[in-house]
Write a structure and sequence with these properties.
Blueprint (H helix, E strand, L loop, with lengths): L1 E3 L15 H15 L4 H12 L7 E6 L5 E5 L11 H13 L7 E7 L5 H6 L1 H21 L6 E2 L1 E9 L5 E10 L1 E4 L5 E3 L8 H21 L15 H12 L5 E3 L6 H11 L10 E5 L2 E8 L5 E8 H9 L10 E5 L6 H12 L12 H9 L14 E7 L9
Antiparallel strand pairs: 1-3, 2-3, 2-15, 4-7, 4-10, 5-8, 6-7, 6-14, 8-9, 11-12, 12-13
């Protein structure tokens, strides 16, 4: 964004901190020439490096009082771009407020063994989809069991594929209702306030469901094998691979319930639209290396600095670009999209909660003022006038590398 006074002098602005886009602009072309990338990875790099630049066009604004001019360039809106997720996240959270019920909610995490990482790199859509299905089926099965709740629970599940150091760490964060709707829809069944389901049993059932689904995918020819996974194309070898996965414990983690709706929304804000690496974790980029902060959970959550050469940094980042059109946030049970409105209305009646209204979408200016306290429409030069759009800046994009 550039602002000038009527006489053409620049209005001061703070230089932004290091961004992922700076690294991609400096090394993206070289990386594309020397590495084999899928089209979705190429598009992600292209979007990030052109985000908020003249390549995407924008508009010119003029102050109605002092005549200062500001040119604002458009965002790429790519879901892997760390610069573009804040507004998307806030709008999504506003819509979710209407879905919250006056009940406890639990946070459950399902993690795939790292032995599946290589297979996931060649088959991300299949491996990720099976993770959603197996985790949701496991939770819904326990919810329907009369020994636990005996009804239908609600689940919002969010896929993360990374660890703090950008390594591959496939896991699903699930927000789960601490109660269920009885099958006859005549009763709300409240769960225990500090306990959802037994974690060891969840882990065992989750492992069984996932491996059974993976076997079916193999039988249906839905998996591809190449490079380090080529040997798994042999049925006997694949069966042995499944046996190895069956012999280890799978990690399922459950936390205590959240303390009220605002805590639930805070949780959702941290996990829903997060990308593999946010700009505020970047430290510096020089001499062919990138340094960024990461939290070492194995060392009492100490924050450390990791240094990677630029190629390895980009390789790790691109591991977490999901397939085109893949839904990274999904809803199940009470929150399934097909009947969510009707089902939640029934739940509120049973819980004695008044009906809620759908949130009205906020404009970008209103949303940014609420989040940052900055009025984007106020002139940054004189501080009194209002910025009015006076012209469209036509995009002049570079050739798309894809």
């Amino acid at each position: 964004m550039c602002t000038v006074s009527p006489r053409g002098t620049a209005v001061s602005r703070v230089r932004p901190r290091l961004e992922l886009a700076d690294i991609v602009r400096a090394h993206g072309d070289a990386y594309r020439r020397t590495h084999r990338l899928g089209s979705v990875q190429r598009r992600a790099l292209h979007a990030i490096e052109t985000c908020r630049t003249a390549a995407l066009g924008g508009h010119r604004e003029t102050c109605d009082r002092c005549g200062a001019v500001r040119i604002t360039y458009n965002s790429c809106r790519n879901r892997h771009c760390p610069t573009c997720q804040t507004l998307t996240k806030e709008r999504w959270l506003a819509a979710r407020r209407a879905d919250l019920l006056p009940i406890p909610y639990f946070h459950v995490v399902f993690t795939l063994p790292h032995d599946l990482n290589a297979l996931a790199q060649g088959n991300p859509r299949v491996i990720y989809t099976l993770l959603f299905r197996a985790a949701a089926d496991t939770l819904l099965t326990f919810g329907r069991d009369p020994r636990h709740l005996g009804g239908t629970i609600g689940i919002t599940a969010m896929l993360h594929t990374w660890g703090q150091n950008l390594s591959q760490h496939l896991h699903l964060h699930c927000l789960v209702t601490g109660g269920a709707l009885a099958d006859a829809r005549s009763q709300w069944i409240a769960g225990r306030s500090t306990f959802l389901f037994p974690v060891p049993a969840l882990s065992t059932v989750f492992r069984a469901k996932y491996l059974a689904a993976l076997q079916r995918a193999f039988d249906a020819g839905q998996l591809t094998f190449a490079g380090g996974t080529a040997d798994l194309a042999d049925r006997r070898t694949f069966t042995g691979f499944l046996g190895q996965l069956r012999a280890v414990d799978w990690i399922v983690y459950a936390k205590r319930p959240f303390a009220g709706p605002e805590a639930v929304l805070s949780y959702l804000g941290r996990y829903t639209h997060r990308v593999a690496l946010s700009n505020n974790r970047l430290v510096d980029h020089r001499d062919g290396h990138v340094r960024f902060r990461w939290k070492d959970y194995a060392d009492h959550d100490r924050v450390k600095i990791l240094t990677l050469d630029t190629d390895e940094f980009l390789r790790r980042f691109l591991l977490h670009v999901v397939p085109r059109g893949f839904m990274r946030i999904r809803h199940f049970g009470l929150l399934a999209n097909r009947a969510r409105r009707e089902t939640l209305t029934r739940c509120r009646v049973l819980l004695g909660q008044p009906p809620t209204e759908d949130a009205q979408p906020e404009s970008v200016a209103v949303l940014m003022q609420r989040l940052t306290g900055v009025d984007l429409a106020r002139c940054p030069a004189c501080g009194e006038g209002r910025m009015q759009i006076t012209a469209i800046v036509v995009a002049v994009p570079p050739p798309d590398p894809s």
